[in-house]
């Protein structure tokens, strides 16, 4: 087992254990164990557990955003100090003084990315589990906490005609159904990520000079993050797209609630 596989193994087990727990609970409540919607709701349950656990991180992010707003006058003064000075030494000095200011206030312009970074190993673990379902089913073996029967169930389950283990790039099942569902969820993911980053930028960068380095960084994030989701989505199995779409909707809802507060 290589280093990455060893690091990811606990995350794969945790992700699959949560999914199996929700699946068994939904089955006990009367939903068909092999139905695609039962497995889909199990993935939604996984999202709810992970995002609920990340609420303290989100609150820390909100506090960091508040500190970003409070230091705006100091940032503006610093930018005015170096305004019109385009030589390399001045740009470097401005960057160093900005970073010192961020450290003093205990924040940074990339604080909005923290929940995304913390989610990354869980997301990668889910991707590894779901993308390995078909191979495990063919070899008649389990994967993570999913037993052999559950692997076969998941591999044969679908929603709206699209198998949960299929992806836009690698196919599987009805190509039209997979393409329609995958593209729809990718578009929702992109829209949610764009709107979320726009809310973060509006809240933290109010009063900033539009040509400041900080605003340029935020504009890059505004367009790059949705692009990453859009390109990555073509590789994701439908089950992973379900996870990320629901997670992005949660993030947008959280940020919308915070943005309404002064």
TrEMBL record:
Keywords recorded for this protein, A-Z: Cell membrane, Chaperone, Membrane, Protein transport, Transmembrane, Transmembrane helix, Transport
Residue ranges occupied by any Membrane insertase YidC/Oxa/ALB C-terminal domain in the UniProt entry: 39-259
Cellular compartment(s): Cell membrane; Membrane
Residues that span the membrane, as ranges: 12-31, 37-60, 109-130, 177-200, 220-244
Record InterPro entries: YidC/ALB3/OXA1/COX18, YidC/Oxa/ALB_C, YidC_ALB_C
Primary localization class, coarse: membrane
Extent of the signal sequence: none
Role of this protein: Required for the insertion and/or proper folding and/or complex formation of integral membrane proteins into the membrane. Involved in integration of membrane proteins that insert both dependently and independently of the Sec translocase complex, as well as at least some lipoproteins. Aids folding of multispanning membrane proteins.
Subunit structure comment from the entry: Interacts with the Sec translocase complex via SecD. Specifically interacts with transmembrane segments of nascent integral membrane proteins during membrane integration.
UniProt protein name: Membrane protein insertase YidC
Record organism: Pseudarthrobacter defluvii
Lineage, opening ranks: Bacteria, Bacillati, Actinomycetota, Actinomycetes, Micrococcales
């Amino acid at each position: 087992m290589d280093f990455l596989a060893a690091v990811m193994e606990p995350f794969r087990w945790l992700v699959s254990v949560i999914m199996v727990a929700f699946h068994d609970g939904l089955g006990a409540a009367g939903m068909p164990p092999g139905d695609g919607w039962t497995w889909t709701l199990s993935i939604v349950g996984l999202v709810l557990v992970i995002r609920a656990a990340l609420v303290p991180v989100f609150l820390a992010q909100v506090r960091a955003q508040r500190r970003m707003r409070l230091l705006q006058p100091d940032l503006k003064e610093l930018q005015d100090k170096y305004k019109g000075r385009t030589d390399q030494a001045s740009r470097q000095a401005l960057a160093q003084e900005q970073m010192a200011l961020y450290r003093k206030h205990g924040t940074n312009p990339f604080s909005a990315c923290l929940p995304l970074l913390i989610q990354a190993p869980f997301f990668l673990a889910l991707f590894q589990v779901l993308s390995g379902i078909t191979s495990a089913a063919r070899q008649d073996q389990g994967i993570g906490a999913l037993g052999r029967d559950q692997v076969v169930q998941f591999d044969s389950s679908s929603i709206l005609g699209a198998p949960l283990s299929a992806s836009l790039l690698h196919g599987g099942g009805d190509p039209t159904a997979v393409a329609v569902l995958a593209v729809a969820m990718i578009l929702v993911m992109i829209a949610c990520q764009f709107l979320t980053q726009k809310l973060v930028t509006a809240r933290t960068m109010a009063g900033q000079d539009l040509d400041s380095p900080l605003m340029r960084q935020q504009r890059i994030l505004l367009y790059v993050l949705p692009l990453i989701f859009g390109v990555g989505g073509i590789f994701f199995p439908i089950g992973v797209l379900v996870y990320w779409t629901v997670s992005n909707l949660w993030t947008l809802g959280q940020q919308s609630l915070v943005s309404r507060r002064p």
